Amino acid sequence: MLTRAVVGLSFIRGSAANGLRTTARHSASSASSKPKRVVTFRRLLVGASLAGVAYLTARYVSNKRRLARPDRENRKRLVVLGSGWAAVSLLQTLDPGLYDVAVISPRNYFLFTPLLPSVTVGTIEARSIAEPIRALTTRTQGSERVKFHEAKCLAVDPRKKTVRCRDVSGITGENADFELEYDILVVAVGSRSNTFNTPGVKENCFFVKELTDAAKIRNCITDSIETACMPQQTDEERWRLLHFVVVGGGPTGVEFAAELQDFVDEDLARLYPRRMVENIRVSLVQSADHILNTYDQDISNFTEKQFKREGIDVITNCRVAAVDEKELVLRDKVTKGKKMVPYGLCVWATGVARRPITVQLSGELPEQTHRRALTTDKYLRVKGAEASIFAIGDCSTIEQKQMVAEVDGLFAEADVNGDGLVTVNEFHSLLSRFRNRYPQIATYFSQSWDENVEKLFEQSDQDGSSTLNLNEFRMALKEVDKELKSLPATAQVASQQGEYLAHLLNDLADARDLTAVESLSLRPFAYKHQGSMAYVGGNQAVLEMPIVGTLCGWWVMWLWRGAYASQLSSNRTKTLVLLDWLKTSVFGRDTSRL
Predict the structure, then answer these.
(1) Which residues contact 197 (CB under 8 A, 6 or more apart)?
(2) Percentage of residues in the chain having pLDDT higher than 90
(3) In this predicted structure, what is the pLDDT of residue 447?
(4) How far, in Å, CA of 314 to CA of 281, rounded?
(5) Residue in 480, 484, 485, 483 with CA at minimum distance from that of residue 427
(6) How does DSSP classify residue 142?
(7) How would DSSP label each residue in 100-126?
(8) How far apart are CA 278 and CA 220, in angstroms?
(9) How far apart are CA 200 and CA 193, in angstroms?
């Protein structure tokens, strides 16, 4: 350190001397004015600062005016179940004073789930990604306009339009149960981890869904290492304790494995004996043949190579058959063989399943037949609830109609002249008219509409007659129907649905009948994918965007951090997360077991 300081001072002194000599030579030309580049930079800096101040001021004034609007008389009672991405996005966008709003959730804060894997190892502290619901609603709706109840919804009665709730906190008082009436109910309760009925998962695995899960994982990691350091442990037991297994090769599983390996390399390696750290192993089990298989193939390949460099063992084409207290039972999908894998920590990061309230509500509505979510129409209205219940986020799925199921009616619509054949112009006209009814049309023809319509027509015209008969027409519709896909259970989808529903409710505030959506010509929900990203360890990240394509590397990590920092719900959480990243880079992660 002393040598570096001396070298640095010498360099500064040498630079200063050279600078003085240069100044002396050019004093005549530079004494009158500053260099143009410095002046230009200062002007740009001042202009950017003024623009930023003007933007923040305009936003502040606009929000003040928004909150100053008088409450509407005879407001409908709007009850929101949940405090996650969908619910918070709805509350942030809903116009104040239009509804009498009540929020019910057993969690009195909004959790920024994309950064939850970072909390499991202490890169970010828990409270840095949690924002109180009351703080959010006060900023967006006003302190008196939203009632929050920290409770769990036990049952919904769609006929009486009531919800039955219970205080499940540590302090409940004399009366824990209560009931609320609603005119409009928004179900945004999210989902829980899906164990796929695998024996032993609930009893022996950790999940990555809540802050309490992150705290348990963090303590278990430290506890396993400290126990392995005990002098009485056998080599076999030490080998087991230091094996950390992640089940699930999606973004959550990949990011947790990456954060865990960073924790081992950057912090545990300098704090624990070398022989202990060398025995720590991180394994990721994936049932598919690649990790991040919903991403582009280049991203999957890059992540697998990165994990290999970092020392993470990726086990693909394997399913977990059972989880014992100390061993996993893996079944190879190719060879059908089984093997026992000892572990000290097992994190289950795959699959989503319905919460009990979602199951109960589905049982009340005969039209609900989906096994994993509440089925809604394109306006996010729950089927069978007479437009009084909406569902958004992970707990819902939008019903998607297959065009081929209505092939006869669509063929009659297309065959304008009634000759039993459909020309290319008639085919083109039909697809244009039905784009809003069938989202798969817009997905299939997302690029070069005219060219792709003609291409599909030619592919389906098997007899070369330049027309489509009923069978050829059916083949064309089947091809378009292949684009039918359920929306992923991500924060991005939930956030967009919450924002859309808020605008929809703003437009319906004066409507006496909530079924008036079609008569008001309101647009249905349309998901716009803005890209996917994931941290893959070693200060590397991956990004996939519709226009940009795929990006991988160390500099993408800064895009990853910048994107998540900008999406945090308040200036407080943004500041805390930035400080946590700075603190971790300077002092490392804390290994205390609290």
Answers:
(1) none
(2) 66
(3) 60
(4) 11
(5) 480
(6) -
(7) EEEEEES--EEE-GGGHHHHTTTSS-G
(8) 19
(9) 14
- Which one, of 368, 369, 363, lies nearest residue 381 by Cα? 368
What pLDDT score was predicted for residue 544?
92
- Residue-wise pLDDT for 255-291, tens only, equals 999 999 999 999 999 999 999 999 999 999 999 999 9
For the chain, what is the total number of helices (H) and then of strands (E)? 22, 25
- Taking only the tens place, the pLDDT of each residue in 516-543 is 777 777 888 988 888 999 999 999 999 9
The structure tokens 């999957």 sit at 300
- The dotted CATH code for 201-353+530-587 is 3.50.50.100
Tell me the residue type at 422: V
The SS3 call for residue 482 is coil
What is the homologous superfamily of the domain 403-481 according to CATH?
Answer: EF-hand (1.10.238.10)
Structure tokens at 510: 């004066």
- Strand pairing report for 99-105 and 146-150: parallel
Poorest-pLDDT segment among 43-47, 55-59, 330-334: 55-59
- Indicate the pairing of strand 389-391 with strand 192-193: unpaired
Residue 581 confidence class, pLDDT cut points 50, 70, 90: very high
Residues making up the chain, counted from first to last: 594
Please state, in angstroms and as integers, the Cα–Cα distance from residue 108 to each residue in 147, 176, 342, following that order.
12, 17, 38
More confidently predicted of 4 and 361: 361
- For 71-193+354-398+490-507, CATH gives 3.50.50.100
Q: Where are the beta strands (DSSP E) in 182-228?
A: 184-187, 192-193, 206-207
SS (H, E, C) 408-456: HHHHHHHCCCCCCCECHHHHHHHHHHCCCCCHHHHHHCCCCHHHHHHHH
Tokens 């190879």 locate to 332
CB-count exposure of residue 270 (10 Å: 0-12, 13-18, 19+): exposed
Tell me the backbone φ, ψ of residue 180, rounded to 5 degrees: -125, 145
Which residues pair with residue 323 across a beta bridge? 328
Tell me how far apart the alpha carbons of residues 283 and 434 are, in angstroms, rounded to a whole number: 48
Residue with tokens 């039918």: 484
C-alpha to C-alpha distance for 507 and 498, rounded to whole angstroms? 14
CA atoms of 586 and 36, how far apart (whole Å): 38
Q: What is the pLDDT of residues 482-518, one digit of tens each?
A: 877 788 899 999 999 999 999 999 988 887 777 777 7
